[in-house]
Amino acid sequence: MTSLDATGTRTNGEDPGGEPVTTANQNTVVDDTSVSALLERGRRLATPVLRAAVARLAPPMDTVAAYHFGWIDAAGRPSDADGGKAVRPALALLSAEVAGAAPETGLPGAVAVELVHNFSLLHDDLMDGDEQRRHRDTVWKVHGPAQAVLVGDALFALANEILLEPATAEAGRATRRLTRASRRLIDGQAQDISYEHRERVTVEECLEMEGNKTGALLACAVSIGAVLGGADDRTADALESYGYHLGLAFQAVDDLLGIWGDPEATGKQTWSDLRQRKKSLPVVAALASAEPAAAELAQLMAADAKKSQAEFEDFDEAEFAARAALIEEAGGREWTSQEAKRQHSTALAALEPVDMPAHVRAQLTALADFVVVRRR
């Protein structure tokens, strides 16, 4: 089991806050082989359907989307670039099995959720000015902002098209869940942007934003396959609760990686969230603490807010490192690490009343464990 040390490098047996990793799963370690197999199944089953969906797009959007997914390089040559973790497709296929259906039953949901997720990435990269994703230049950097917007919009439309094609009652129920999750995802992005321009954000506001931005779509992913498989709303709602809290755990770890993550693992710049002045959980928790470092951090961030982005980007590494050190000294790093564990425990508790095969429950547990110990 691995986690971040103080320099952003993962170390055995510690979590991002520096304590031994324990989960709600009685201190069991993640079975990397099992999780890898689940993620690989998601990719193997969803990718052909995803490619066929993208092929429907008019040129050059089909090519731009193929670049974003890592299927081709910037020159249009076939590529095997990192296409992401595929957690959402894996969850959608697994949720079909909760309902007693074959995993393939969840394929329209798996592909639809992945399309919405990538719509959000294309737009987020442009809005945040991120130049790197998955160790490659982002779409807006290679193909321009207009294509990033258009392809994102096209993927969003494709998601609903794919999900509604079976024309069944279950497809209609699944689409309602996806559209609700998509709206909440957009709400979360709007909140995220607005918080960048505020001097203070509460921990509660930050958790609400991250629940919308990350939790809502993961919640949809882990219920949509079950809905397509004929599960009732009570089962689907319990699975959504698991996915929502798993999303909060996922985002808490993401926030730790956004400050202390190893760029070679994350594919982003050092101190990436600090460079963008994000009010992420470690920052917000640090500012809310009573530690002396919190007051010093608040003064620095108030001064930072008056600078232009160009001035801010001229900071050297030592200045970002100093801010990261203050966040850690004020307790933001430790609090966020513990919050990831709390959300992980709440996610697993949501599964307790759901009747499902034992191997499916074990796999959902393994995926939850994977989320809180991942390094990218």
UniProtKB/TrEMBL annotation:
Give the region (Disordered) as residue ranges: 1-26
Species the sequence originates in:
Streptomyces ovatisporus
The protein's name: Polyprenyl synthetase family protein
Organism phylogeny: Bacteria, Bacillati, Actinomycetota, Actinomycetes, Kitasatosporales
Q: What InterPro entries has UniProt attached to this entry?
A: Isoprenoid_synthase_dom_sf, Polyprenyl_synt, Polyprenyl_synt_CS
Q: Does the keyword Transferase apply?
A: yes
Q: Which family does it belong to?
A: Belongs to the FPP/GGPP synthase family.
* Keyword annotations of the record: Magnesium, Metal-binding, Transferase
Q: Is Transferase set as a keyword in this record?
A: yes
Alphabetical list of Pfam families matching this protein: polyprenyl_synt
Q: Where is composition skewed (Polar residues) in this entry?
A: 1-11
- TM region positions: none
